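pasting for ref. prot 1 ->
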Amino acid sequence: MVVRRPFVAALVVAVTFALAACSAGMTAVGEGTVVGPGGAARTDVTIAVAAEPVNLDFTTTSGAAIPQLLMNNVYETLVKIDQDGAIVPLLAESWDVSGDRTQYTFHLRSGVTFSDGRPFTADDVVASFDRVRTDWLNAISAKMDVVASTTALDEHTVRVTLTRPSNAWLFDLGTSVGAIFPADLTGVDLRTEAIGTGPYRVLSVRQGDRIVLAGRPEYWGGPPAMTTITVRYLSDPTSAVNALRAGDVDMLFNSATGDQVRQLARLGGFQVVEGTSTGEVLLSFNNRVPPFDDVRVRRAFAYAIDRQAIMDTASGGYGTLVAAMVTPQDPYYEDLTGLFPYDPARARELLAQAGATDLDVTLTVPSLTYATTAAELIVSQLAQVGVRVRIATAEFPAVWLDQVFTRHDFQMSVIQHSEARDMLTVFSRDYYLGFDDSTIAPLAAAADAGTWQEYVDGMKQVARHIVEQAGGVVLYLAPTLTVADEALTGIKPNAVTESMDLTTLAWAP
């Protein structure tokens, strides 16, 4: 994590931007203090985010934007992944694991209620886990395949029995696949309603504009500091930056370019918080269709791409170069960037071997700034090895999700995958890339059921195989970049799961 609080070179600049960062009716008092009418501390905040959810139901709708907003803030899990990647208690106060590692007994918190007033009990856990295996359409539901049964032992005790030991399962419970819903969802449309145990509830949704969360004073962990959190969806980074400078928003979450972040830092009056993420930006191939059903073509494209140049351009140099969908925080991370160095000559050789020296390829790009910026450079780099690429822009999220993700109607695309430890999900046969997972599936299963060292070694082998087969090209690991009013505290620097965790936000007293 890097927290940068830039030196204010000129007092007039500091005053100008401190005032600009205050909403209407708010006043800056002293260093880092923002108060409302009558001297009361502010309890509202407005945040700009780039990608808007299609709806509120991540059980049947793919895309990171929904759990990004709702997880931890509205929905909670039995365990939580903390900022260092450790598994810590949340709705479960503690848990016991059997000697053979196939039974987990969770001891649940008492006094917890859902946002509609219903008490949280073991029955809610049973129903939520069962639904993942029976009702969920989201591909991440496969992470629950290892569960044989979930049983309520009493109102506050749940036993989960696995079909085999699993090194990954408890971590996965801290992601959206472990979200706890009420047992009875009769008459509830999860596309428009979100009923969770978190510190916030969904107050209103204005499609194409904003979603407002309201603080729950009855929250089991105590009332949150913010009474309202307004999340505005501004896909254009310039609009987001202008809104911050005008005081219309208080915080930008991954919604400004790297160059814009540096400019804001120089202006003063704002804090820049840089952290890690789980978001791998992937040049994805449709492995089912020509020319990407030929591994030689996929490898040629991997050699033809200058990933450092793309990260420098699309992310302003922020981020980390990785070759696999594994982050440096994951236990089985290995630096594989040397497998496909930038080598246009080698790319041309492979294309010639594949008889693909006169290729025309369509690159279907979501209407997201990082993707469109990366796409322009990809087109230029592939042109140097004789490949003609046509860019087709697809409105995100609705059109891209339908065309690319659901109907698999594409040859090549660029998208950031933000789910934690999602390598096996992305590179599975039924996912939108259509990668042949016949080799890695048994390797991954054996690793997951083995000792911890066997898990680490086995998953390294899986990651290496995927990279060598070039099922897609990981361009870079995106950073988490937050720019906010200097008086805003409690910003979580790292996105350790797909969640934008806003639970500790507060204004400085």
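and prot 2 ->
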Amino acid sequence: MLTGYIQSYDGSFITVVVPYDNDFLFEKQGITECEVTLLDGRRISAEQRRKIYATFKDIALWTGHVPDEIKAILKYEFIAKKGCEYFSLSDVNMTLAKEFLEFLIEFCIENDVPTSDNLLDRSPDIARYVYVCLKNKKCCITGKKAELHHVDAVGLGRDRKDIIHTGMRVLPLSRKKHTESHTIGQKSFEEKYHIFGIKLTPELCKIWKVKDK
């Protein structure tokens, strides 16, 4: 991971200066894009720390390891994946803490890790959480096997197999929650569970085997 500083901001564009001296690698790979994380200087919050350690405990119970072992293993996996430096959960910045919590939540979803409370309540980014649930076909409320619930109504008489689904807002819901959403209405359902639908991408359309173009 490279670090630099913000040189200027004109209201529309940020100019970032990053020292870099590997000309051969830069030219060989033809790099034209990069990711930028803005750090606001804030440190990890008590709520973030509580949710992270609660997730360590859940994963530890699932694996049989002690929480400190899980903490060490998953921190290093996250560091390797992100390419960041080693960090301490006592004073890590709030942005990295958020990303690490998302990483732990995604691990639980992908591996069917039972948790002491709903992962939806722990998630710092609902849209990303719903995306990961859709990607793994897990109900975003119960964690059980999901069906595709259309937030954007398909309409009577329309064959769902022929509809272009890309861009349609959906939610992954268990059969029980899917029925409930139709019973109480979409708005009431979203307000009850503090959830909202996200748009299907071509990748998600392939996973759900619905028409994307």
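The chain is about 45% helix and 10% strand.
The two ends are 37 Å apart (CA to CA).
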